[in-house]
Amino acid sequence: MQTVEKIGQQAKQASQIVSQLSLADRNEILKAMATALTANQSTIIAANQEDLANAQDLTGPMKNRLTLDAQTIAGIAESLAAVADLADPLAGPYENWDHPTGFKIIKKTVPLGVVAMVYEARPNVTVDAAALTFKSGNAVILRGGKEAIHSNIALAMVLRQVLVDHNLDPDIIQLIEDTSHESVNELLHMRQYIDVLIPRGSGKFIDFVVTNATVPVIETGAGNTHIFVDESADQDQALEVIHNAKTQKPAVCNSAEKLLIHQAIAAEFLPKIADKLIAAGVELRGDEAVCALDSRIKLATAADWDTEYNDLIMAIKVISDTAEAISWVNTHTTHHSETILSQNPANVASFMNLVDAAVVYQNVSSRFTDGFEFGFGAEIGISTQKLHARGPMGLPALTTIKYEVFGDGQIRQ
Amino acid sequence: MQTVEKIGQQAKQASQIVSQLSLADRNEILKAMATALTANQSTIIAANQEDLANAQDLTGPMKNRLTLDAQTIAGIAESLAAVADLADPLAGPYENWDHPTGFKIIKKTVPLGVVAMVYEARPNVTVDAAALTFKSGNAVILRGGKEAIHSNIALAMVLRQVLVDHNLDPDIIQLIEDTSHESVNELLHMRQYIDVLIPRGSGKFIDFVVTNATVPVIETGAGNTHIFVDESADQDQALEVIHNAKTQKPAVCNSAEKLLIHQAIAAEFLPKIADKLIAAGVELRGDEAVCALDSRIKLATAADWDTEYNDLIMAIKVISDTAEAISWVNTHTTHHSETILSQNPANVASFMNLVDAAVVYQNVSSRFTDGFEFGFGAEIGISTQKLHARGPMGLPALTTIKYEVFGDGQIRQ
Does residue B412 lie within any of the structural domains? Predict the structure, then answer.
């Protein structure tokens, strides 16, 4: 097994090669990778069976995410081939201008270099991340969860073989086979080789990465998202939007976790939404005002207000006005997606302007916070930070700029 | 003295206010600040005298940077007023598009929120940073060096009074008066209040910040910059460019520190450039090949190749070809500014494409890496990282984006 240091070194070197490939070459190779995945599906499925045999302790949904069969592999290959059809994030035209002394400055879009991805037991991320980083001219270091290690090794081997077949350095795509915590820790500190690390996983894991890494990190995905129903809301519409945002896919980061109801409508609206959510199997927790209005709802603890459940649970609070809603949201937000349900333009404007989140919604389900839904064609993650990229990240998030200056002997006076 | 925590809290609150000011209001206040600086110059100069009296140990250039008199204050006020004339970094038009289900997505440009600046004994940075963060709608926390503390307090008091006079929260601009290391340490970890921290200072200090901070950081300024003279270079032009890049202002980050000479021209070119640099008072150090060619040059140590001198010192090395030059530069670069002096298009293309730096020059002095020279009107620093901002940073580097979504009840299927 190669050391993480060695993998980093190789990635840095390989990043120069992949950064110089033409769009036509990158696309041809992506399509060849899609074909190779399907052609090698029996090897991949056999490796996945090993992972599944070791995965007795996993819950049903986690086992589902881990499972690869002919159909899921076909889906992964299809997504991979679709990346070839996306616009080139490195393409010009680039801004350029002349300095008064006559030299030309070109502001070029270039790959970041070496991207490291740390993620959990979802083997499809191995292929997605490899495809998106490759398309954008980067080398990638993949460090997936140990539950998927055999699947990941098999997938990476197929992708690397395609690189070899095209006379390219296979270290453009590398998988860390060491699934110990130490290998992650080493990655977090390898500033000389890694240009950006993108963690995907639980809020707790991402916090660990952000507070420990010395390499540049893009925070993704923690979503303690709120819906505020103000006094002017269309209540029938609100019932549908809240139901959708909470129940349509509760395990993901853009589903709703908290509901704030304006005091003027609480007595009327709470029983209706509680009926609907309880019927959908949602466990409700509430502040004292909520519990006083509906005896089916149990009292929330202080920890509830900062917890991302990723489950059929929702905490509800009565709020006195839009200003309090904004202040509450800004105190508890993970800066992902926040929603106001309202027909009052002044309330909407305040909420939009003052809530500090990547995406702020009026009268729309927050389940739409997603690269595909936003029209970016692909998504490497959802940034909850403000620097570099915010919200759903498409291919441009994997690029940076470089100033190229061409002159004929200009000196500064 | 207020705690750093309290200052952070206040800044977060004030950031909402400044983020909502119109361009006209921001510009009017900037101009009022410029007027107030001049009107209060005697108070400022008196405070500065205290700092100077305590600054017996400072070197001449550092004392110069610290000194405020009527003329320097007029210059600072003029720069401040000029910020009012810069384009609004928050202005639209914003990209916007409709989702197939009918809701609208607007990609808005918004301030970062709370910007923290940590810097050394240059009181002008106090005003520059306050002006640029204010113009871009941010609250700022300033933490200047202890040598300038009295000057900084006086300057901040003038700026804050202008905010009060305009019925605004003065905590939009705050100065940390505690000049202990602990106050910096606290800043580095105040994730709940600080959106970005920009350190300005020595490479060692910036490294400390980057490796210890848990708040988002933009790395600035360390510049171990190289010039590679290839076999095709116009040697007369090269002499002028190297001389300018090394000697015109040796203490700054965009001045040249290392010279790489192609072996085919080393015997011819080295004596000429050594004559010119030695005449300008530059101490030369070299690898063995260089020392063998010119006995005036002493042998460089391994540490030389990674040292930013910020002084009249230059280390010179003989290189076998462009590929070796690129590899050498990429190993020792601080990713700031790198230069090739060449008339050979193939060498220039390789160097431009493969050298990993914010700015890459052909036949131009690297002294031009500067926000004003690049036409950005102002500069909050020079980013040597790849995320968010790279190279000279103008006002847009102090902004982020936010997606505002407006619909009428859309839910995800």
Answer: no
Other C-beta atoms lying within 10 Å of the C-beta of residue A149: 21
B269 and B178 both lie in a single domain: no
- Contact of B385 with chain A, judged by CB distance below 8 Å, is answered with yes
Q: Chain B closest CA to A372's CA: distance in Å? A: 11
Query: For position B290, which CATH number holds?
Result: 3.40.309.10
Indicate if A199 and A246 belong to the same structural domain: no
Is B376 within the bounds of a domain?
no
Residues from chain A contacting residue B363 (CB–CB below 8 Å)? 103, 406-410
CA distance A153 to chain B (A): 30
Strands in A337-341's sheet, in edge-to-edge order, are: A298-299, A283-286, A313-319, A256-262, A225-229, A337-341, A359-364, B399-410, B104-111, B95-98
The parent domain of residue A311 ranges over 225-368
A331 lies within 8 A of chain B by CB: no
Listed as own residue / partner, the contacts of B183-188 with beta carbons closer than 8 Å and 24 or more positions apart are B183/B4, B183/B143, B184/B118, B184/B143, B185/B212, B186/B4, B186/B5, B187/B4, B187/B8, B187/B116, B187/B118, B187/B141, B187/B143, B187/B215, B188/B212, B188/B213, B188/B214, B188/B215
Asked if the Cβ–Cβ distance from A364 to B105 is below 8 Å, we say no
Kindly provide the ipTM of the predicted complex, given to two decimals.
0.95
Q: Minimal Cα distance from B100: which residue of A?
A: A373
Given an 8 Å threshold on Cβ–Cβ distance, is B411 in contact with A367? yes
Chain B contact present for A408, CB below 8 A: yes
In chain A, whose CA is at the least distance from the CA of B404?
A360
Cβ distance A410 to B365 under 8 Å? yes
Q: Does any domain span residue A376?
A: no
Nearest C-alpha of chain A: how many angstroms from B100?
9
Query: How confident is the model over B56-82, as pLDDT tens digits?
Result: 887 777 788 899 999 999 999 999 999
Which residues in chain A are closer than 8 Å to B216, comparing Cβ atoms? Answer: 385-387
Q: Does A180 touch chain B (CB under 8 A)?
A: no
Q: Which CATH number does the domain housing residue B27 bear?
A: 3.40.605.10
Total domain count, chain A: 2
Q: Map residue B27 onto helix, strand or coil.
A: helix
Query: Could you tell me if B237 lies within 8 Å of chain A, comparing CB atoms?
Result: yes
- Determine whether the interchain pair B405/A360 forms a contact, defined as Cβ–Cβ distance below 8 Å: yes
Q: Which two tokens stand for residue B243?
A: 């001389």
**pLDDT number for residue B203:** 81
Residues B405, A361: C-beta atoms closer than 8 Å: yes
To the nearest whole Å, the CA of A115 is away from the closest chain B CA by 12
Contacts of B346 (CB under 8 A, 6+ apart): none
Question: Which residue did the predictor score with more confidence, A78 or B203?
Answer: A78
Query: Taking CB atoms and an 8 Å limit, are A19 and B411 in contact across chains?
Result: no
Secondary structure (DSSP) of B168-209: --GGGEEE----SHHHHHHHHT-TTT-SEEEE-S-HHHHHHH
Helix extents (H) in B20-122: 23-39, 41-53, 60-66, 70-84
For tokens 């340490």, what's the residue? B185
Residue B379 within any structural domain of the chain: no
- For B167, the token pair is 């019925």
Distance from CA of B351 to the nearest CA of A (A): 10
Q: What is the largest CA-CA distance in chain A?
A: 80
Q: How far apart are CA B364 and CA B242, in angstroms?
A: 9
Q: Which amino acid is at A82?
A: A
pLDDT in tens, B207-258: 899 889 999 999 987 899 999 999 999 999 999 999 999 999 998 899 999 9
Q: How far is B343 from chain A (nearest CA, A)?
A: 9
Pairing outcome for strands A196-199 and A114-118: parallel
B105 contact residues in A (CB cutoff 8 A): 374
Chain A CB contacts of B359 under 8 Å are: 402-405
Looking at the structure, tell me whether residues B204 and B138 fall in a common domain.
yes
